[in-house]
Specification:
Length: 303
């Protein structure tokens, strides 16, 4: 069995296209087709279904893909061992993630990551959860980092996950106006207050809106922005109230500039999950990023 044929097979499987695989590998389309036919002949299996110019893996093709990834990994390890050197990971990794996760993950530790992996470049794309998975399914990003409902789908592998807590928050100015007390606010009372929120339809904002809609309530914010840190600062200045994950407000709560608002019967479950496509080959640069993001966990709630 020719290793090059397995490499071509992985490219076609990931890109769902003979044409795109040919462009990426530098072969002609006829060469790619020939290599796949050779592999199918040597295995005695049909690896792809070709219907109306679309290409998808057969059930047996998915099994072979898992072995192909393992062969590639072992081949890379053998090459490193034979050359008696541990190659430094190099390459480009594309990540789709929520805006608030981006600033939280990168502001403290990214310099250390760059020091350890100077040859890895990273591109971050923000978007809704739906848009992030569209990009992942089309192989336009390598990883997605969501802040949403818990996602489980056999199409994707979960590299890491953690439950996140979030609260309605207000600054000292609003506490002075009578919001502070032992009794929780009702959702209806809450809906009548001035809100500063992330963009509509995005991650935890969408979950909050859906919960309110179930109660026949709607919030019309005085400000919408994807910058959660800015929202936290404005809340601390008394500009309004907001609904934010605890990792965004932790320092402000600790310093007494922002406080949680108790709200009656308003529970939302939010998960932070790092995922990649089941058929995706985890390259050394991608593995380094997964380890960085997975280990970059901070406590999700304030005691």
């Amino acid at each position: 069995m020719d290793i090059k044929n397995l490499e071509t097979f992985i490219q076609v499987a990931e890109l769902s296209s003979f044409t795109k695989a040919a462009e990426k590998s530098g072969y002609s389309q006829s060469t790619v087709s020939f290599q796949i036919r050779q592999l199918e002949k040597s295995l005695g299996l049909l690896l792809f279904e070709r219907v109306n110019h679309t290409v998808s893996l057969t059930a047996k093709g998915r099994e072979v893909l898992a072995y192909a990834h393992e062969v590639r990994r072992l081949t890379q390890e053998l090459e490193k061992q034979l050359h008696k050197e541990q190659e430094q990971a190099s390459g480009h990794v594309r990540i789709a993630m929520a805006d608030s996760l981006c600033s939280w993950l990168l502001r403290d530790d990214f310099q250390n990551f760059r020091r350890c992996h100077p040859k890895i470049t990273v591109k971050i794309i923000s978007g809704s959860t739906e848009e992030m998975f569209r990009l992942l399914n089309q192989n336009e990003v390598d990883l997605v980092y969501t802040l949403d409902n818990h996602i489980y789908d056999r199409t994707y592998r979960i590299a890491s996950e953690e439950k996140v807590t979030a609260h309605f928050v207000a600054g000292a100015g609003y506490l002075a106006k009578g919001l502070e007390g032992t009794r929780p606010l009702s959702p209806r009372q809450l809906a009548g207050l001035p809100f500063l929120l992330t963009e509509k339809g995005m991650s935890y904002r969408r979950l909050m809106d859906e919960r309110l809609a179930a109660l026949s309530l709607e919030i019309r914010p005085i400000l919408e922005t994807g910058n959660a840190d800015l929202i936290c600062q404005l809340v601390a200045q008394g500009m309004g109230i907001s609904f934010l994950p605890d990792y965004v407000t932790r320092e402000a709560v600790k310093n007494g500039r922002v406080c949680y608002l108790p709200v009656e019967g308003f529970g939302i479950e939010i998960w932070r999950q790092l995922l990649y496509h089941h058929d995706k080959w985890v390259s050394p640069p991608m593995q380094a990023v997964i380890e960085y993001l997975g280990s970059n966990k901070r406590t999700a709630s304030v005691p």
